Predict the 3D structure of the following.
Amino acid sequence: MRKATGGSGPGEPPARLRDAGDVDRRWVFPSSRSDDVRVLRPRFRPGASVVLFGGLAKERPYPGSTMVTTFNGGVSSLVKTLAVELAPHRVNALHPGVVGDSPKWRSVPDHPHIARTPIGRLVTMAEVTDATEFLLHNTGINAQDLFVDGGVQVT
């Protein structure tokens, strides 16, 4: 996986993108900014695809989540417009639930979502990675939101 970082100057690609190289289907860019994706578009190789990351607050808002809920809803809308604008390249979104072995949650015992999750546990970073790989490689999936939450939305 390649990653780009940095700043930008007027009228040119942001520095974090200048050195990104060509984008093949194994390249993940940790951004949901449409201008970043558009800047990279000329570097896409045949078969390249984009995966944007959102979260469950889009579907299950909670007190104080207005900004993150709005952002996550925007990711879903952005996927649909970018899938049209970047065709034939595919654009999808991944919305993970609480990731139990992530640095933020691994030290929290008995997270409240565990009791509400049909699988009886939180999802793992490996499961989120597998879902990302699925979206990058399955050429029949386009303009979709994939939720990796262990089924917490049905409870």
